[in-house]
Amino acid sequence: MGNASAMLTQYDIEEVQEHCSYLFSQQEIVALYERFCQLDRSAKGFVSEDEFLSIPEFSTNPLSQRLLRMVDGLNFKDFVSFLSTFSARASLQQKIELIFKVYDIDGKGKVTFKDLVEVLRDLTGSSMSEKQREEVLTKVLEEAGYTKDSTLSLEDFMTVHNYNTESSTTLD
């Protein structure tokens, strides 16, 4: 482990810190590099799908297959950038952009009703019927001014998120 941190120069640390918008301290970046090296068991310089699945919290996440699509083959710099979204210091905008990518199954920059249903299915499993999922999502979209036939861009997705966040705070 000590060898892993010795391989990072001060310049590398600062470059990674800049790449992740300074959401991690230099000490956190060194710790993340050590973890990255542990995950990169074959020392290829990137973390594969199988290596990510060795993280218990990742492998048990109901959205792990969708997240794998985003993380398979990340080098260290991109690994830190991906993780920075989960930082408490990350902006709401950054977090919503990541969530949008999870929903954007085909990576074309658009989310369909079908995409929403599929993610909700992954999250709820057998605790909701298909009909219940569709009813909930139809209502959420309609309340934000969209229909189940709408295709949501990132901007639309943020509108739906903001509308539902504001609506839920006024229910108290």
Count of DSSP strands: 2
State mean pLDDT (0 to 100 scale).
Answer: 87
Q: Indicate the structural class.
A: mainly alpha
Shape: elongated
Q: Give unreliable regions as ranges.
A: 1-6
Radius of gyration of CA atoms, rounded to a whole number: 19 Å
| Biggest sheet record | 2 strands, antiparallel
Distance between the termini: 50 Å
User: What is the helix fraction of residues, given as a range?
Assistant: 55-70%
Which strand order spans the largest sheet, edge to edge or round the barrel? 1-2
Continuous helix count: 11
Order of secondary-structure elements:
HHHEHHHEHHHHH
Strand content: under 5%
Index terms:
172 residues; two-stranded antiparallel sheet; mainly alpha
